[in-house]
Amino acid sequence: MTRIQTGGALALASLVALQTLPAAAQTTNAQTTKTQATNAQAASGGSVTLDTLTVTGQGKGSLTVPSAEQAREDLGKTVGSVGFVDSESYKGTLSNTLRDVLGNVPGVFVENRYGQELRLSVRGSGMARGYHLRGVELLQDGVPVNAADGSGDFYQIDPLSLRYAEVFKGGNGLAYGSSTLGGAINMVTPTAHTAVAPNLLRVDGGSFGTLRTTAQASRVLGDLDFLINGTLSHSDGHRDHARQQYEQVNGNIGYRVSPDVETRFYFGEYVTHQKLPGSLSLSEALNRPTMATAAVLSGDQARDVWTQRIANRTSVKLESGQLDVASWAIRKKLFHPIFQVIDQTGWTYGLAPRYTTSFTVGGLRDELVVGARLTAGNTKARQFVNLNGSRGAQTVDSRQNAYNAELFAENRLYVLPTLAVMTGAKALRDLRTYSDLLSPSKNGDRAYYGFNPKIGLLWEPKPTIQAFVNLSRSQDVPDFSDLNQTQANGTLGFVPLQPQRAWTAEIGTRGEIGRVSWDVTAYRSVIRGEMLQFVTNSNVPAATFNADRTIHQGLEIGGKAVLAADLAQKGDSLTFGQMWTYNDFTFDGDRQYGNNTLAGMPRHVLRSTLTYSNDGFYLTPTVDWVPQGAWADQANTLKVPGHTLLGLQVGKEFSNGLLIFIDGRNLTNKRYISDIGTVTDARRVATSIFYPGEGRAVYAGVRAAF
């Protein structure tokens, strides 16, 4: 039976009880008439997203959190490649992982491994990382989800608790202080001012024993507003030993001190119990995709995470601009029996002021963002011998401390009404210290310094068309998974890796003309010291090394066209959407690997959709096509096969806010590889590094927004 913790059940019960509050109290969030517009166009020439569903009424936003429309418009001013996803665009899907949120954004590669564990990479960031997250800064409400050392995972983010997502690719994440190769993704939760309705209730489920229940309530009470959201989720998983239980409660309380001052407190608790199925050989993954490995069964391998989050954002509107100050504290406890039992408890906390202003210089319009971030993290990291999922003898007792100080600025000067010159830079100092209480001789520390400039142009020949070009420098600092590498005897050793540095040039255009919208970017990154990984043993975390010189280049293409309107009756439409990400990632004259293709990412990733919509009804067949699979080794001797997946989404949204849907995935039950670890040479080392994709699945759901 599904196990629901008492705290989560009480939280959900509280949510349901809140539905009895007078909906009339929420005066700023009345639900508007639904339209058949697809929400694919970006306001003021902003970024294009490949939405397939209608969008319900929008709130007006407030000083601390803008509405979805305002956020989209602000994002469209970015001098570079960005993406925007409205949560209403995926409301007719299971919406269990970030793949359901970001899968239609060109340039973002996201693939499930199992449960909520997935690979998230932008422009090849962390492409050889066989677990969790590196190279992309993930934020929730502008507050980092990543730990202070830069590592991260995805368990805190529930797609059903979001209002919209902002994707800043590469150096375009500077506006949030990010300067990693992959950029930043900001997942924004709703407030009572921006929620699509005062109340939401949703139940969905289907294949692999999946059942999810979500409830949300929000109210505006004069100058006070609040929202609370909760999700209970269970899945047995596509594979053996992959059962997942997930519970989250998250919300916020805002208070308008005056028309020019607002403060908002965020809170959340997120609990995940995930059994691990392990990685397989290529033959096993394709022929016995549901099996779990013997090692994970004997060690009852799992990943249990308890996270508590509290944050504040205070915004002050000044005569000259706006000051936003974010502060946060996040506690995370990890119990992770794998090759050993990893037992960690840590805190991440920080302070981030950000000032935005606009003024004139010599009669020219100028927009400026200046900010800083001070973040720190302290983790008590222990390891034990794994005795069937329980702690045995202790092997590691260490402390991991990370301290970061960052200053950044970005300026847009409109030298012509339609032409902006952008300049920016970030200065950083990051310190990592490692203390081994059992073996002090293994202690280590490393300080990293950097200065990352950026320059670019944004041209708007028409209000709905933009073109841009920019050049930026990025710097990725190793996290403790890179610095503390597992030795042959199972203990840790501190490896003082170099930072990863890159120069990235990009050129692109986005916009809409009539029934056609597009988002196209070409980029090239020249990287020094790229942090690559290779698996030495399938039961031991991968080791990391700095490559010499590598090249990441590619195309990010998204588009949508209304092929026909008023087909069967007035108001219906047929819309085609296409996403294509082209990855060309190679070594550049490497002493060992020459100009080989880097392992870990397929060259082409395409997704096509065709949507018929009519008076709230929609029918969307989908095709996911990977013509050629990724190389599994840096020597380029083993490649996974490509695959084609067929899906179908169908649903109906009624005028009273009721939505019913069916979401079918991999309908032909194709056996394929969804993700891989990487090795040096598949001819010489073990290759149990493959994660099979999920088989045929059908889900159904119902959502009430009122």
TrEMBL record:
Every TonB-dependent receptor plug domain range = 77-184
Which GO cellular component terms, listed alphabetically, does the Swiss-Prot or TrEMBL entry include?
Answer: cell outer membrane
* Keyword Signal assigned: yes
The processes (GO biological process) annotated in the record are: siderophore transmembrane transport
Which residue windows are coiled coil? none
Q: What stretch of residues is annotated with the motif TonB box? A: 52-58
Which Gene Ontology molecular function entries are recorded, alphabetically? Answer: siderophore uptake transmembrane transporter activity
Regarding the membrane, this protein is recorded as: Multi-pass membrane protein
What residue ranges are annotated as transmembrane? none
The record's subcellular locations are:
Cell outer membrane
User: Mind telling me which InterPro entries this protein's record contains?
Assistant: Beta-barrel_TonB, Beta-barrel_TonB_sf, Plug_dom, Plug_dom_sf, TonB-dep_rcpt-like, TonB_box_CS
Which keywords fit this entry according to its UniProt record? Cell outer membrane, Membrane, Receptor, Signal, TonB box, Transmembrane, Transmembrane beta strand, Transport
Q: Which residues form the signal peptide?
A: 1-25
The TonB-dependent receptor-like beta-barrel domain is annotated at: 234-667
The main place the protein resides is: membrane
Taxonomy, superkingdom: Bacteria
Q: Which family does it belong to?
A: Belongs to the TonB-dependent receptor family.
The name under which this protein is listed is TonB-dependent receptor
